[in-house]
Amino acid sequence: MAVADWLQWLENTPLAVHIRQAAWLYPVIEIIHIVGIVLLVGPALLFDFRLLGFAKHLPVAGLAKHLLSWSRRGLWLIIPSGILLFMTNAHTLGYDPVFRTKLILLVLAACNAWLFAVFRSRWHNSTEMPIPAKAIAVCSIMLWIAIIACGRLLAY
């Protein structure tokens, strides 16, 4: 099955059609998606600012444990709601350069988070973060702003 055929099939599934036709379903899914974004990005940005040197009195390890658990909860809302939103307009979005850019940025954000996880144990007891930790934080901030901007651009 070609990509175009798969995208069209996805958009024509009964679930996608129902979401498009139900008066309140699409807006409810969109609200869930936005709440998930807040839960994911808000704590991530607060943690990134800590890595950049703000609120040095807060221990990195404790802050990571608390804030990043909220980010993971946000993912549980974002992923299924994002898939449902995509399904309703799969054919158009599948070829939209902004959507493709957003997906690439999401992959880069995941790689950035993975890098943080790999090196976190080396930094969690430090008061002053090393340059690589700060670089990861700056990348995270820039990536999440760009991802959110792409999401907003898709709405218009």
UniProtKB/TrEMBL annotation:
Pfam families from the UniProt entry: DUF6644
Keyword annotations of the record: Membrane, Transmembrane, Transmembrane helix
Name of the protein in question: DUF6644 domain-containing protein
UniProt key word Lyase: no
Positions of the DUF6644 domain: 30-155
TM region positions: 24-47, 75-93, 99-119, 131-155
Annotated InterPro entries: DUF6644
UniProt keyword Transmembrane, yes or no: yes
Superkingdom, taxonomy of origin: Bacteria
